[in-house]
Each structure stands twice: as C-alpha cells, then as structure tokens.
Amino acid sequence: MATQTKLIASESFSEQVRREGLPSTECPCREMLKDVTSPWGILLLIVLMGEVRRFSELRRMVGGVSEKMLSQTLKRLEAHGLVHRKSYETVPPHVEYSLTPLGRTVGEKVEALADCIDTILPDILDARRSPPSPKHAYPDLASTDNPVTRL
C-alpha cells in the first residue's frame, strides 16, 4: 500500500486528473488554474514576461480590458505569488507590476502554450470552416442504431 501511495504522490497534476478527474472544488490548484488561464491572466503573464510595467501600460498593451477587471486580475495573480506590485509614494501615484520568480516559471509555460496556439492557428481556423469528420461527428440521435434511442 505504501508503494502505491508513493506512486500516486509522484504523479503530476495532469496524470492525477486523467486518472481521477478534477480535484475537489476546495483544491487551491483549481483557483490558481482559473486565475492563470483567464483571458486577462494569460495575457498579463505574457506581457509581464518582457519587463516591469505600469498599470496604464498594461491596460493599453492588453487591450479591451476594463480598469476594474485589470485590477482584479492583477490582485489575484499577486495573491498567488505570481505578480509583484511596487507602489511609489508620489503624486499622482506610481505603481509598477512585475513577475516574481514563480510568475516567470508560470509565464514561460503560458508563453509556450500561446506560441503553440499561434503556430497551429491556420489549422484551427481550417478546422472551424470544415465540416466535422465522420469519426468526430455526433451520431444521428433519431437512428435506430443509436443505443440511446433504443432504450
């Protein structure tokens, strides 16, 4: 039994999810994944990989994000230890954001995901325009061969 526990403990998160499904809603990793993979979280991590940025600069570079949503996302990423916020005592206030070492680690993975999507984007767009292949098409629910309709 101890060997099995050790094997399970050495599994990666993705291996555990494939084997058991998603962890409980109380698992802190779920909240972290939600915040990192939110549309604004991903973009902010990528933009902050480059250098230290001010709030207005982040808003301009990300585009389409409201001040409220940008502020909330930055606070969540900061709470997870991914973003560092430095406030200067000036008038008007001057605040800079940068990635922590943990943020850089996650940011590198997010960049790789974004670069992968960008690389295969033409194929994704082609797939959207093409009808689904027969092996991926939904079965005809009215068919007598469908086990659901035979019940």
Describe this structure in words.
It is a single chain. This protein has helices at residues 2-9, 13-20, 28-36, 39-50, 55-62, 67-79, 101-129; strands spanning 53-54, 83-88, 94-99. The protein has 151 residues and is mainly α. The chain has one domain (14-129): Arc Repressor Mutant, subunit A. The chain has a three-stranded antiparallel β-sheet. Helix 4 (39-50) crosses helix 7 (101-129). It is globular and about 65 Å long. The chain starts with a helix and ends in a 22-residue tail after the last helix. Residues 1-7 and 146-151 have low confidence and may be disordered.
State the helicity in percent bands.
55-70%
Mean pLDDT: 83
CATH superfamily: Winged helix-like DNA-binding domain superfamily/Winged helix DNA-binding domain
**Can you name the CATH architecture?**
Orthogonal Bundle
Please write the string of helix (H) and strand (E) elements. Answer: HHHHEHHEEH
Helix count equals: 7
Q: Indicate the radius of gyration in whole angstroms.
A: 22 Å
What is CATH's topology name?
A: Arc Repressor Mutant, subunit A
Number of domains: 1
Total beta strand runs: 3
Task: Indicate the CATH class.
Answer: Mainly Alpha
Distance between the termini: 42 Å
- Helix vs. strand class: mainly alpha
Sequence of strands across the biggest β-sheet: 1-3-2
Low-confidence spans: pLDDT under 50, at least 5 residues? 1-7, 146-151
Biggest sheet details: 3 strands, antiparallel
Strand content: 5-15%
Shape: globular
